[in-house]
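Hi support team,

I'm filing this because I wasn't sure whether my run with adenosine-5'-diphosphate finished correctly. The job status page said complete, but I'd like someone to confirm that the output block is well-formed before I use it downstream. Pasting the exact inputs I used:
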Amino acid sequence: MSDSKEKAEGGAGGEVVIEVDDVKRHYVTGGGTVKALDGASLTIERGEFLAIAGPSGSGKSTMLNVIGGLDVPDSGEVMVEGKHLGEMRQSQLAALRRDRIGFIFQAYNLNPVLTVLENTEYVMMLQGKPPAERKKLAVDVLEEVGLGDMLDRRPSQLSGGQQQRVAVARAIAGAPAIVLADEPTANLDSTTGQELLDMMERLNRERGVTFVFSTHDPEVMKRASRLIRLRDGKIESEERRR
Amino acid sequence: MLVLKLAWRSIWRNRTRTLITTLGIMIGVMMVIFASGFAVGFSEKMVRTSTQSRSGEAQLTAVGWAKTLEETNVMSGLDERLALLDASPKVQAAAPRIVGFGLLSIGSRSRGVQLLGVYPARESKVTNWDSRLVAGEYLAEPGDMLIGAKLAEELEVEVGAKLILTGADVNTGEAATELVYVRGLLSTGDNGLDEGAAIVHIAQAQRVVGLPDAAHVIALDVTANTLEPDVIEADIAAFASDTVEARSWRQTNAMIAEVHQMMGAYMDMILFMIFLIISFGIVNTISMSLLERMHEFGVMRAIGTSPWQLAGQIVTEAGFLGLVGAIPGLLAGLGLNAYYASVGLNFSEMNAYGMTFVDPIYPLVNVPEALRVAAIFTLLTALAATVSAIRVALVKPVDAMRS
Ligand SMILES: Nc1ncnc2c1ncn2[C@@H]1O[C@H](COP(=O)(O)OP(=O)(O)O)[C@@H](O)[C@H]1O
Ligand SMILES: [Mg+2]
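And here is everything the job wrote out:
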């Protein structure tokens, strides 16, 4: 880590799916400028199970948001599957997220008026899949995450762990290439969190989906195939686990 | 379907707010449907009052007579014309009239009047005078006269009074007098008629004005619906010639026709005004609930909903709100109209466009029109939400999720 322009590289020589190049995201607040991202660069390859670690306020969420096109960097570039996000319109970014990126949040964020099945079908509805097909796919995914018998429940009738599984099912159902998960286990107890990670890992392995998740929990970091540490908006270190 | 389910369930998340909003829409729809049912009932009543109390549904006159009321400008060949009219399936009744001027006197009191000479039997098939008597009876014997109750009051006469009718020969100017008997007192609702006309047998009128076998007007009751003047005009065109004009009530009673025609546009204006009033409440509650749900919208954007899809989702919700208010409003409005259509609304004191509404007004129960009003309200509700929806949909996902 001698070169300041150094990039965190996938290094395994695989296909690059995400490229973050010298991205800055600064907020001017009453108390001065907050550098949420301050010249971070990162390359992620297909099939990685990548953890972004760092203390609270280090820029993890901002990084994930920028990769997903939810936030726009002040400078620098983000490429997802070869596409420059900076050149895309909101509707194109939406289509990219719909078709290529799944999102999982710390607070589950399921739609409270939709059932487990409907929450899972939603992205496929946006994709324009016919109802019968999307229902079948959603049921398959929900069975895969162990919720095959809760299809018609509302999120409020589920435990936190179950809700987060629905969120995983929702993220994965549209067959994305990438899943971005912002502290997915932070609201769960450690056993439930580890179960969720087991599930994510299995999906990563079996479906070849690239997972990028943030965490500040050392137990969770251990599960990553590669670990990136952020501090003050900069990439502090990188470790390859397996 | 998922879009509809999501929209439908979402509006019920804040039950109280939804019920308040939809109640506003419901009351608006009900008011507009009632107002328009009443207005159309009023307007049709006005048309019927004017045709039945005076003009008939159509008239034949000598060319130019309607403009100048020139007394010498009469239609000739009355018998052949009547034969033709009586034989036509388009015409139900034809009533020739003399329209002149006369002076009614009794003792020292006298009044100038419009002199109407009619065939009593024919006339009763065109106008409703025989059923508008407040005293006495309809014309029977030669020498019988009908006058308005108001005129009778002014002349201080009652049924059975004997008056002198003075007229002038239209060609020579020579005065002619006839004795007339008040046979019945009229209250038609047509103020001109009730206050200043004397209706006598046509032969007597012809004698007074010196126009034997002639008529100024043949008033018609046609087979076509009164409210379809286009059809009436097409049906009577055959009776026009170089010397005779055939005109429907729309042409003979132009002012009333105009009011009638404007009623639709007028009601639409009222609709938009009422909607405008409630739209402030609608826009307010909708934007309030949108603000509360910004986080949720941010999540929707994050998982791939495009700004347009999100705006569409919100507008769909507003459409449901509109529908939930408009449907009970539709039923209540139609119910109100149906109720008053059976009991009638009494406006016997009301005076408008030269007419007094003698009968109650019966609002019209017009289902297609009510459906149109409900549909417009629903669409307007959706439209009212559009601006807020687009604004919300364009918020950057990360900013939306932070709220
Ligand atoms: N909209 C914003 N306005 C001001 N400061 C912000 C905003 N978003 C994030 N920040 C700041 O940027 C820094 C990084 O935030 P974030 O990426 O959420 O960190 P993490 O997810 O690692 O906790 C924090 O100091 C945070 O307060
Ligand atoms: Mg965070």
